[in-house]
Amino acid sequence: MPADLPDTGLDWNDVLHFVTLVEQETLTAAAEALDVQHSTVSRRVAQLEASLGLRLFDRIGKRYWLTEDGQRLYAHARELAKDMRALQRLAHAQRQAITEVAVTAPPVVLRWLLLPRLAHFYATQPGIALRLQSSAELHDLHQRQADIALRLQRPEAPDLVVRRLRALHFGFYASAEYLRRTARGDWRFLTLCTHNRLSRWAQDTIGNGQVLLACNDFELIGQGIATGLGIGLLPVDSVAAGQNLTAVALHAAQPERYEQALYLVMHEDVRRSPKVRAVADFLVQALSSSSLEGKP
Questions:
Q1: pLDDT of residue 288
Q2: Integer Cα distance of 38 and 7 in angstroms
Q3: Does pLDDT of 157 surpass 60?
Q4: DSSP string of 131-180?
Q5: What is the pLDDT of residue 143?
Q6: Does 175 share its domain with 159?
Q7: HSE-up of 16 (CA within 13 Å, CB side)?
Q8: Which residues, other chains included, contact 27 with Cβ-Cβ below 8 Å and sequence gap of 6+?
Q9: How far apart are CA 54 and CA 10, in angstroms?
Q10: For a surface tag, which of 108, 169, 213, 242 has the fewest beta carbons within 10 Å of its beta carbon?
Q11: Which residue, 275, 258, 292, 273, is CA-closest to 113?
Q12: What is the DSSP string of 188-204?
């Protein structure tokens, strides 16, 4: 601070109380306008006078009249108070504004686990808008393109906060009509071509069986199963009652199942945001194993 501008310890709230008292003329009216006790207004004005080393008011009865020093300072203080009020309104508007939180997840999680639960989220968190992105990569977190990621493998990066939510299960399904009309030796298969652990497990389970369709879309596999194309790999969560699909055991007495853990992942600094924390808490509650009764 320059030598000719000593630090007076000026409190901007004192300035606001000073301007309000000038405008309202009495302590009672100023206190009502500021929603404080009249003693607070008196104390604030006294603090401002002490900070400036000037007497700003003459008190006549219950009214406060500006001194010459007070008159000279009031014009500047009024503009300052105007800017302060504008800043307060802007801050309030930003606190109330809808906040967008970006969540990335594999399509299987978005479509069959998260989407059915969004109505409940928006009913309880109307001030947050979710931006959902279909992705199975972690680079969107590292590049800060997403606030929260749901992943089917546990990341090892030390700067990430990771929580296991539940297990996803996958198995083979067919329509009842296909199983009725097709002998076991003639079974044909629909599976993934994604070259990950799940697709390798599926291929190992199919063995030498003929694959009619290999793709990276469970919804397409489900449509193929429904049309009687063959036996296909599906997430257990995607199989709804009334679809007339049957879990198929290819080799064992019981239908084979592949289990894969689902993790919630975010950066340590991001989770300090109240909005991000609210979304993370919702995801933990909605997608954890304890909240999915009747699901694997």
A1: 86
A2: 28
A3: yes
A4: EEEE---SHHHHTTS-SEEEESS----TTEEEEEEEEEEEEEEEEHHHHH
A5: 58
A6: no
A7: 17
A8: 21, 38, 41, 42, 62, 64
A9: 13
A10: 242
A11: 292
A12: EEEEE-S-SHHHHHHHH
Report the residue count for the chain.
296
Enter the tokens of residue 122.
């928006």
Cβ neighbours, 10 Å, residue 82: 11
Compute the distance between CA of residue 158 and CA of residue 267 in angstroms, rounded to an integer: 10
The CATH number of whichever domain residue 265 belongs to comes to: 3.40.190.10
As a whole number, mean pLDDT of residues 64-72 equals 90
Q: Say which residue the tokens 């993790």 belong to.
A: 263
Give the pTM.
Answer: 0.64
Domain assignment of residue 78, given as a range: 12-96
Long-range pairs for 243-248 at CB < 8 Å and ≥24 separation? 244/175, 244/176, 244/177, 245/173, 245/174, 245/175, 245/176, 246/173, 246/174, 246/175, 246/176, 246/179, 247/171, 247/172, 247/173, 248/171, 248/172, 248/173, 248/174, 248/179
**Residue type for 237, please?**
D
pLDDT tens, residue by residue, 6-38:
555 678 888 889 998 988 888 888 888 888 898
Contact 48, 11 (CB under 8 A): yes
Q: Is the pLDDT of residue 214 over 50?
A: yes
> Which residue has tokens 């497990």?
201
Q: In whole angstroms, what is the distance from residue 205 CA to residue 194 CA?
A: 16
**What CA–CA distance (Å, rounded) separates 57 from 153?**
70
Which two three-digit tokens encode residue 193?
A: 């071509």
Distance CA 234, CA 112 (A): 11
Q: How high is the pLDDT of residue 270? A: 78
Return the CA Rg of the chain.
33
Domain count, the chain: 3
